[in-house]
Amino acid sequence: MSLRSLLTRAALGALLAAPALAAPPPFEDSIAQRVQACTGCHGDQGRAGPDGFYPRLAGKPAGYLHHQLLNFRDGRRHYPLMTHLVAPLTDAYLLEMATYFSQLDVPYPPPAGQPPADVVARGESLVYRGDPMRDVPACVSCHGERLTGVAPAIPGLLGLPRDYLNAQFGAWRTGKRKAHGPDCMFEVAKRLDLTDINAVSSWLASRPVPVPAKADTSLPKPLPMPCGGVPQEASR
Questions:
Q1: In the list 71, 140, 223, 226, which could disulfide-bond 235, CB 3.0-4.6 Å?
Q2: How far apart are CA 80 and CA 86, in angstroms?
Q3: What is the sign, positive or negative, of the torsion defined by CA atoms of 234, 147, 55, 97?
Q4: Residues sharing a CB contact under 8 Å with residue 13, sequence separation 6 or more, in sequence order
Q5: How many CA atoms lie within 13 A of 219 on its CB side?
Q6: What's the pLDDT score for residue 235?
């Protein structure tokens, strides 16, 4: 018998004697698995990124999250990485993603340190009373008395880092971020000066998130100004 034949027989014998290879684990074809691409930036379970610029997704109203995904896809918000990720996705699939994150109920981190007293006073005044002289509505008149948002389309403001809040105000002022018209946040942002924006962002970032942190189901009064993308029933 040739050397080649001996080697072939030995190899076959080794294969037959070896235990059967384990089958690969089944792939979890679920929305939880598919949105792992989001958590690389937005943190485990959408809790928020560690750098202060990737916001929390968990627990935000599904309608709000859906609108933001559509805005990135359709050019109303500008961030190339997000646009690239959502560009090929349908409205229905974006809604499925938004619904998944809206149903997550995970703890919030502790708030940031307390800002200076004058910043606290100005920020709290704008949040709860607005500035009638400049037609600036109070934040609570749209985002709810607890500032946890109003389902299905108005986000909460607590639990967000100051840097992220400041960046969003800046994006509205410069047109980098837009919403369906009438764009109420653009109107609010352009009526505030930079000192006011810092005061509001600093105050919000310093406040603890109430427990439970669920969005309200409605507002006690109609919205103080027209706001595209927000169903009228949310303000009744």
A1: 223
A2: 10
A3: negative
A4: none
A5: 25
A6: 46
CA distance 44 to 218: 29
Map 63-86 to HEC letters: HHHHHHHHHHHHCCECCHHHHHHH
The model's pLDDT over 44-81, given as tens digits with 9 standing for 90+, comes to 999 998 888 889 999 999 999 999 999 999 999 989 99
Using DSSP, state whether 234 is helix, strand or coil.
helix
Query: What percent of the chain stands above pLDDT 90?
Result: 73
pLDDT of residue 12: 54
Give the chain's mean pLDDT. Answer: 88
Please name the residues in contact with 197: beta carbons below 8 A apart, sequence gap of 6 or more. Answer: 166, 169, 170, 189
DSSP at 216:
B
How is residue 122 written in tokens? 């100005």
Query: Tokens 């809040």 label which residue?
Result: 165
* Domains in the chain: ranges and CATH: 32-107 (1.10.760.10), 110-236 (1.10.760.10)
